[in-house]
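Chapter summary example: a protein plus pyridoxal-5'-phosphate.
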Amino acid sequence: MKRIYLDNAATTPVDEEVVREMVPVFTENYGNPSSIYKEGRDAKKLVEENRAKVADALGAQPNEIFFTGSGTEADNWALKGAARRNKKRGSHIITSAVEHHAILHTAQQLEKEGFDVTYLPVDEYGKVSPEDLKKALRDDTILVSIMMANNEVGTIEPIKEMVEIVKEHNPRTLFHTDAVQAFGNIPVDVKDLGVDLLSVSGHKIYGPKGIGALYIKKGTPVENILQGGAQEKNRRPGTENTASIAGFGKAAEIAKEKLPEHTEHMQKLRDKLIKGVLETVPKSELTGHPEDRLPGNASFIFDYIEGEGILLSLDLAGIAGSSGSACTSGSLDPSHVLLALGLPAGRAHGSLRLTLGRDTTEEDIDYVIEQLGPIVKRLRAMSPLDEAHPIDAAVYEHGDHHHHH
Ligand code: PLP
């Protein structure tokens, strides 16, 4: 059976051109970039060429790009590195309630180390308010980290405006943005945004998994979080993942080149999908911002049913989707993002995220719309919940950490 992959926010297939760049690195250009002989010099050259490609796609200088083992590592580095290095100036950090766990759990770790973290709320569409940020800034605020686009509901945050507010308050307060979901889907230009630190990842842009990068604006005070050799200009030790770096560079180059076409393609199909689902499925609602959202993100809430049930039925119909983020699916906890939007825990359980990609076709979208209505109807027929018996949120509250307003 033909599979329709609509979970491109979880990960993307590796572009064949990217694979072609990577294969010879395993077998021919296999040297260690730290070695001084030809094999080493060739590998070093490959790393630098691809650093330049990633830098170019982000509007950065090559010496401002540091390869990491993932987007998660880049986020950890940005937060821990900036917080620890600037501790003498203050201990206050600001982030948002809808960040990826790579940010949220790192912020929680920093709280244990004595930092004071403010988690900004979001509105019903998942937007952080620049006004709220302005009010939260203090004399001892050393770092602000707000994601560029949300991985679950696709909402795009007003980063440029927030950077201006922060820098007006104190030019030394560092601004980091997690651009893992934004990169390759909307324009990401570090100079235009004005950020000091920015994280990206290879596998969300049709590149390999296990490779990411942190943009560190020249002169930004950030401590290392890994100790070891002298790689990455003494900033990030570990023998360079040369094959993945080659793949990431190529993927970034293609992402830059194809961005307008890619955005337009996905946005058209996304709008068709959203319209089709909302029209054919009763008691369905779009989550995330209606306009300021990633071009490939279509996410919904369906009342009275569980996202897990929808996923299983879709899977049987040949469709791969997600409920919440890849990390939260598989657990019964409702997504922290949906709770932050103000959705009651019970309703948050009925979530579905479909994320389109380069290869998504109009026929795929037609098929999904055709399948989803009957699936939801069948699940609702089996559900003990309906209009007369709406959700008792308490039933779904596991533990004591699910607060919502
Ligand atoms: N940040 C966001 C917003 C993400 O969506 C993800 C991936 O799901 C990450 C960070 C982590 O990236 P990686 O999978 O490369 O560790």
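Key point: Residues 70-72, 75, 100, 102, 147, 151, 178, 180-181, 201, 203, 212, 326 surround pyridoxal-5'-phosphate (CB under 6 Å).
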